[in-house]
Design a protein that fits this description.
The complex is a heterodimer. By secondary structure, chain A is mainly alpha-helical. Chain A is built from eleven helices and no strands. Chain A has one domain. The longest helix of chain A has 34 residues. Chain A is globular and about 70 Å long. The N terminus of chain A is likely disordered. Chain B folds into two domains: 209 residues, P-loop containing nucleotide triphosphate hydrolases (Rossmann fold, 3-Layer(aba) Sandwich); 62 residues, 2-Layer Sandwich (Alpha-Beta Plaits). Chain B is elongated, with a radius of gyration of 24 Å. Classes of the chains: A mainly alpha, B alpha/beta.
Amino acid sequence: MTTATSAGAPAPSVQPYPGSRYHLTFGRVLSSEWVKFRSLRSTLWTLLITVVVMVGFTALIAAVWRSNIDSISQDPDAVGLGGVDALTIGVNFAQLAIAVLGALTIAGEYSTGMIRSTFSMVPRRTPALLAKALLVALVTFVVTGVATVISYLVAVPFLSGTVFALDLSDASTLRVLVGIPLYLSAIAVLAMGVGALVRNSAGAIFSLVALLLVIPGVFSGVPLKWMNTLAEYLPSQAGNQLLTANPTGSLSSWAGFGVMVVWAVVAFGAAVVIAKRRDA
Amino acid sequence: MIEARGLTKHYGSKTAVDGISFTAQPGSVTGFLGPNGAGKSTTMRMIMGLDRPDAGTVTVNGKPYVQHRSPLTEVGALLEAKAVHPGRSAYNHLLALAATHGLPKSRVGQVIEMTGLEAVAKKRVGGFSLGMGQRLGIAAALLGDPKTLILDEPVNGLDPEGVLWVRNLAKQLAGEGRTVFLSSHLMSEVALTADRVLVIGRGKILADAPVQEFIDGGSTRSVRVRSPHAAQLAALIARDGVTVTAADEPGLLTATGIDAAAIGEAAAAAGLTLHELSPVSSTLEEAYMSLTADSVEYHTTGAPTAPTTQGEAR
């Protein structure tokens, strides 16, 4: 009887490998991303900065309103602001910290070479990027949700008894409180998408500052009607409709947030398509 | 087992890897040898699915790398020491890699111990020396107890003890039936570690043979002859298949295609005095250099050895 091994080539005795239990699953990729996320100081710092900025600005704004309350009209419609708007101003600064967080989770891997380890472990790449986006959105939602609750509790004593008094039974107040973590989670995903496309930490952060702050400022400042309309559809402007007690502009609160989510999904989708095609 | 067929990669107008085909067998160490810029790293990245080939295919353990359900237990790779985030500790880096496949934490501890990283495991990788970074890369490659190992320049930056350890490790892993594919730009390193050598230059395979065969085939044995009658002697022994070269020094000849005994007998028969008659076998390094001489991407100016001109003494 002939054997399967060719003559001359010694058949090596390959040891059995216990490989069957250990394989890729999306849950495991997600847990790996969690290990990566919590083991970097930069991510913890940006989250801490986010919370401090959100709570600090709320306290500052609420205190300023309180001390100037005599010079402010007592008619809510004339003021145009709601008490909950005291929380939103800090969000516009906190979004930069979240943008840095989102961009760094992926651009930091590209700039250091870590991405080659990541894509060696998860060679199909999409699960790794999806896990990253999901994780950064979840962590942002939870952390900024807690920061929103703290901000609210800080603002209540300052604003009680004034025209800005906070009231949880008010629909627009509740919408803004839920909207803040939703908005920042969308920023995180958008930033991750931009970070994966630019593949460089500094470049990604520059692009995001331009997209979230500079371009909206220019577009809405220029006295051209079509540019002002266009500005309403930029991600931060559109998303801000969810964060104000009395939104102005053509988009409703949730339609505005919807536009923002479209931006985030498109950026992330483009990042996945490009990452699968490009050499790592 | 690694099988490449017609593997090609261009970067812009430059062809990094030019239609190469080879097989790395289980149970042996295959040395992948070539000068810097020859296409070794590009080939290894294509094996790992990191770079997309422009043409051709490469499979590991029977499948393209991306199609494996459990890549970490199939293939372990050290592609470059710095595929690590410098802000993360060695332990957390390995833990993150292990987590993707559900490997237990205890396995992370094992590879840290195997690679001698216990003392620095909790330190951030940014502060690591080249040698420690290399050990961490090897730890990552061993993590999944893989059937195939791909090691790109594994001894770079290691101290002599580390170099010896890598050599023994590669042989041991191959002895266990695994495929070990190891690149180096140093012939001596491959000669000491590999069973088979694959030489690449300017993106093409120049040689693919068992190490000993490569050494024998690539080297031409020659005889050094010193005689006051050099010109006469050269004329005497010159015939088909024999090349006689005059060295810079007067009276010194180098003959190939003829052995020392034949030269000695010819000289004795003609009554010519010999001052020296010594067989010279070329070294591995020379065999490798002569093979890749035309395909070195980055030449240093000023060749280290003067090339000999043939047939001057005829």
